[in-house]
Amino acid sequence: AQSVTQPDIHITVSEGASLELRCNYSYGATPYLFWYVQSPGQGLQLLLKYFSGDTLVQGIKGFEAEFKRSQSSFNLRKPSVHWSDAAEYFCAVQGPGNQFYFGTGTSLTVIP
Amino acid sequence: DTGVSQDPRHKITKRGQNVTFRCDPISEHNRLYWYRQTLGQGPEFLTYFQNEAQLEKSRLLSDRFSAERPKGSFSTLEIQRTEQGDSAMYLCASSFPGEPQHFGDGTRLSIL
Fold first, then answer.
1. Second label for B2, Cα 20 to 30 Å away, from A26, A49, B29, B103?
2. Residue B101 to chain A, least CA–CA distance (Å)
3. pLDDT of B61 higher than 70
4. Can you give the pLDDT at residue A2?
5. Which long-range contacts (CB under 8 A, 24 or more apart) does B59-65 make?
6. How many whole angstroms separate alpha carbon A15 and alpha carbon A80?
7. Measured between CB atoms, which of B4, B6, B56 is closest to A97?
8. A43–B45: do the CB atoms touch at under 8 Å?
């Protein structure tokens, strides 16, 4: 069965510091993987996606993620965090019926 | 492209009442998805349509829930005889096949 684990419920970083959010997935075939961001009371905005090819994918807002098949991971990174990055981040894997399976999310707090 | 639109943004109702939510997808997107998100959790898949056909339903979609997409454009999600446990954010998303899903801002349902 497909599933996504985000081990960190909450992360706090200082503005300007680097960020890495962890995501592990379980999926029998080659996964389609996504990172979304959600601000309070809002829907989800796509940050980046991995379908195939280069395992390092670039997204919007300076985010990138690396697919590591051997570790079943798809961690999200940003070299320098901005206060506006404070939000909830969700990793998702696309199932065979095209529905998404989301992790429980990581809440990011940015300290000035 | 005006994005995915959901109405209402917030619905407050008494237990036992019926409620209906509407989703207008991005025009020309033939796939439409419904998800439910409770506090502190990631979105959980409920059902999806390709054009007017409902192709998959989650076990979460009890017989009190029904979704329609009669003309392959907008969709409605109805919950009959609402229960406390139905309180959640209901998210709609749309996409082309094989493409990432675009989410609306959701309808927050509060059951008194």
1. A49
2. 8
3. yes
4. 80
5. B60/B36
6. 7
7. B56
8. no
Q: What is the pLDDT of residues B92-107, one digit of tens each?
A: 999 988 788 999 999 9
Dihedral sign computed on CA atoms, order A59, A64, A69, A71: negative
Single-letter amino acid code for the residue at A83: W
The contacts of residue B46 (CB under 8 Å, 6+ apart) are B33, B34, B35, B36, B57, B58, B60, B61, B65, B67, B77
Q: DSSP letter for B72, please.
A: S
Token pair recorded at residue B51: 């054009």
Is A44 in contact with B48 (Cβ distance < 8 A)?
no
Q: Which amino acid is residue A73, in one-letter code? A: S
* DSSP line for B23-58: EEPPTT--EEEEEEE-TTS--EEEEEEETTEEEEE-
Cα distance between residue A105 and residue B42, in whole Å: 6
B73 and B5 in contact (C-beta within 8 Å)?
Answer: no
User: Does the pLDDT at position B2 exceed 80?
Assistant: no
Nearest to B48 among A45, A92, A99 (CB): A99
Chain A contact residues (CB < 8 Å to B): 4, 34, 36, 41-46, 49, 90, 92, 95, 97-105
Query: Region B78-92: what's the mean pLDDT?
Result: 96
Whose tokens are 């008194």? That residue is B112
Residues of chain A with pLDDT under 50: none
